[in-house]
Amino acid sequence: MVTLRRLAYARRLSAIASAEPGLPPSQRVPPKPQHVVQHVHAMTHDALTRHVQLAPNAPLVVSLSGGADSVALFRALLALTGRWQWQLHVLHFNHGLRIEACAEEAFVRALAAQHDVPCHVRRLPHGWAEQSATAIQARTRAWRQSESLKLLAELRSSEGVMAEKDACGVFAPPSDEASPLPLLSCGAVALAHHADDQVETLLLKVLRGCHLSNLRGMAWRRGPFVRPFLGVRKLELLAFLRELEQDWIEDASNQEEKYQRNRIRLQLVPLLEQLSNGGLLSRTLAIEEQSRQLRDLLESTCGEHLASDPAWESTPRGLSVSMIRARPEMVQDELIRSLIRESTNTEPSLTSGKLLSLRARIAQHGRSDEWRIRLSGSCSLHCVGNLLHVEELVRPLSLQTLAIGEATLTIPIGWHVDAGWVTNAGEPSGSMLVHQLPHNAALRLRYWEAGDLFAPAWRQGNVSVAAFLRGQRVPLEARRFTPVLVFEHQVIAVYPNHIAKGFGTPKHMQRPQNTGLGDTEKVGKSSLWIIISHRSRKSD
Q1: What is the pTM of this model?
Q2: Topology annotation, domain 6-193+218-251
Q3: Residue 508 CB burial class (10 angstroms; 0-12, 13-18, ≥19)
Q4: Does the structure show a pLDDT above 80 at 321?
Q5: Residue 400 CA: distances (Å) to CA of 129, 481, 497, 529, 537
């Protein structure tokens, strides 16, 4: 086992300070030994009080790898446990991917035993890494998170702690840091990310092309996962461990430049620290705050826009082209993302080039134009008339059949339809009324299709449904999503109130004075009312 003793640590710390001459004195050298322990304890206590709010007697699991950061977190939380009365536990992950893995596990077990803290070890199943070598960092991260949640659930169960959804679910923390957080009464998993990790995270996001409004680092608290060290610098943690005479194990993989984050930490961060004269952290945090303000402004502006856009509550859900075109370009981009997110339940992945192309099409769009731009997956953005909406690739419709006495009405799944025979009580307000139907009619309600013909009551012969809607001055975007009622392969009604010749109200017809289907059978034909209260998208 390779450990870094106090003397080696002092030499390394001096090397760090001398290798970064651009750092100001307060950051180039660690705090004075007599103050560093109290400083780290105070910073940790402040973070737990302001950002974490872990309830007394709750289980607190420390994710302990054996490295400097996690060992410092363990020692800091251990010192505060008596004050907060947590049930402290150690969780170690043995990935088995490096030859040092067993030595690291032994070190963690010994450290936990030395301080009488229960230790839990989780190992990757044998052969797990060989199953797929791709994205191994992301996969192991997901495995660690899953195992952490399982352990926390076991501890809650064994200690009789009642879980509360708001506290225990994996939710984002409140955006308003000033508002009081709900207590994490069901426990937490503490991670050792610190202030310098925040800088790396933000630089990673910049390199990956993150939107300006999303340049945020890691959260102090996200669900049961908490990060009490986000306000502490790496050098402060190293000085803290030296003062405690606490060993740790250096993870050799942190020096491997095949990982992008390592290259940022080893190459980019030192250069930027020097070029910024030691101001990298403060400037990065300032950018993060400005990004948060921009995000709040975008969400507020888009919320106001969507509340006033009638297309947002239409079927299908969409955006009015004339309204979105009047917004600034950044707001247009955010509205398009909101539309895709709401329509597909996935986070949109749009490059700046694709957004630029979309804005150009919207700017040139005319009320009689129609176009599509393919998105990732099975969706496209469809702009027709004054409507911009998300359209999925055509797939077979799933249908359901409603029974109306002996008659049937087949509708797409996802549509909410009420229907019934007209009685002496009358039909509901807003109904589409169709007359002269046999009591055992087999009807179908669907969107109109190319080739559908319709016979309006006021003219001779049939006309295409498309031409009929155009003649009725129905907007282009509304024409695409107009339901029709079909009987014996004939369109007998166009929603909401256009009834075909032969199915309108006959002059001699009187409303049936009955409420039972038996009397309707005697009449032979009767009147049906239909109300469509909700329709899903055309491709659903």
Answers
A1: 0.67
A2: Rossmann fold (3.40.50)
A3: exposed
A4: yes
A5: 46, 19, 23, 18, 16
Say how many CA atoms lie within 13 Å of 443 toward its Cβ: 28
Q: 261 with 137: CB under 8 angstroms?
A: no
Summarised one tens digit per residue, pLDDT across range 362-388 is 999 988 888 888 887 678 898 988 999
Q: Which two tokens stand for residue 440?
A: 């055992």
- 288 within 8 A of 217, measured Cβ to Cβ: yes
What pLDDT digit, counting tens, does each position of 476-533 carry? 877 778 899 999 889 999 988 899 988 887 654 544 433 333 333 333 457 888 888 7
Q: Which residue's structure tokens are 């000033």?
A: 178
Q: How far apart are alpha carbons 230 and 273 in whole angstroms?
A: 18
Token duo for residue 402: 């409603």
CA-based torsion, 262, 267, 268, 269: positive or negative: positive
The answer to whether residues 270 and 280 touch, using CB atoms and an 8 Å cutoff, is no
Task: Give how far the C-alpha of residue 153 lies from the chain's centroid of Cα atoms, to the nearest Å.
Answer: 24
CB environment 254-276: b (16+ within 10 A), e (fewer)? eeeeeeeeeebbeebbbebbeee
What is the helix (H) or strand (E) element at residue 423, kind and residue range?
A: none
- Structural domain boundaries of the chain? 6-193+218-251, 312-392, 399-534
The string of pLDDT tens digits covering residues 253-308 is 777 777 788 899 999 999 999 999 989 999 999 999 999 999 999 999 999 999 99
| String of DSSP letters for 63-94 | E--SSHHHHHHHHHHHHHHHHHT-EEEEEEEE
Q: How many angstroms separate the CA atoms of 110 and 116, rounded?
A: 10
